[in-house]
């Protein structure tokens, strides 16, 4: 899927549009040093695609796994405008796979070095991927237990009617009860599907539900590769005995397939096993705690979005904003209204207008830009109105605050105005 995704970026011109052309990039905190490679950015995507292919074939697996994780994650760090939950999920899986023996069987490495071929791996290696998938689903389900999603069917009540031109089902999408059905079913699905996939008697119907659910989301919403990532990833819940028997039959026809003949077991070196155990414990502890960090902040999460990312809150809100910036020179009457289109792409402007950390980064960029033009201590003020899940658009930040003087850190941004409503839930 990563190979296909890289080819898709090349074919659609997204590398140039998203990662080369912008004059400004929104950076994750602490990753300002990550920058594009100019026209060589195409090589970055090529490296990612080639390492993904090598990784999938099990050729120079460890090297491929490291290069793939680093290149894919580097691409995602270039501009947080392009953040998607499934990109984050893929990076996490790739990190885990560096430590897992996925090349122990049916890999080209087994042809190069027959001694590396093992028929079985420790159960915890596949269980770690299942655990990560379980965390994704359960936290996505918990996030849906809020009043907007369950009691107001928001934002599905806004999104579904926009697809009423679909054949056969289009008219149904205008019905309010359909939005409520999808909302409640989505929450129940996320909370229950890991357990149903884990239990043998319910695994097959559960997986059929996975396929149906994600195909439906792919049809209704433009969310890229995410449905297919989840459909294929959840195959990890199936036991390996069936697929092993399948490959035994294939090997009888094609003897050259690198399938181990004996049920020998992959063993970690004691030191490697100990270090891997420590890494995995820390990794899953972080994954279990990170989604709860929003509790450390004041205000409504959907409004401030402090602690929103990296917490598996998938498609929970429709947030629209309109942002006007003014730069003033200290000690003079010189001032200028900013045309955001001069500095930002349409997608960057859309994301910036509703998220406080984007707004602050952009304000600092504007201050630096005008300072480089000879302005003395430029001040940056913004008037921004934001609407959440169909509510009336209201003032988002204090227009009197000089954003150029505000610091970007993990503390609460007190220049965000209070939310004028209540959203109950997790």
Can you walk me through this structure?
With 426 residues, this protein is an alpha+beta fold. It has two domains: 2-145 and 190-292, no CATH class; 318-405, no CATH class. Helix content is 50%, strand content 6%. It has helices at 2-12, 14-20, 41-57, 61-77, 85-97, 108-112, 123-143, 147-151, 156-159, 176-198, 200-220, 226-233, 241-253, 270-289, 301-304, 346-352, 356-372; strands at 319-329, 335-337, 378-388, 394-395. A four-stranded antiparallel sheet has the order 2-1-3-4. α3 (41-57) packs antiparallel against α4 (61-77) and α11 packs antiparallel against α12 (226-233).
Task: Explain the layout of strands and helices.
Layout: H1 2-12, H2 14-20, H3 41-57, H4 61-77, H5 85-97, H6 108-112, H7 123-143, H8 147-151, H9 156-159, H10 176-198, H11 200-220, H12 226-233, H13 241-253, H14 270-289, H15 301-304, E1 319-329, E2 335-337, H16 346-352, H17 356-372, E3 378-388, E4 394-395
Antiparallel strand pairs: 1-2, 1-3, 3-4
Helix pairs in contact: 1-3, 3-4, 4-5, 7-10, 10-11, 11-12
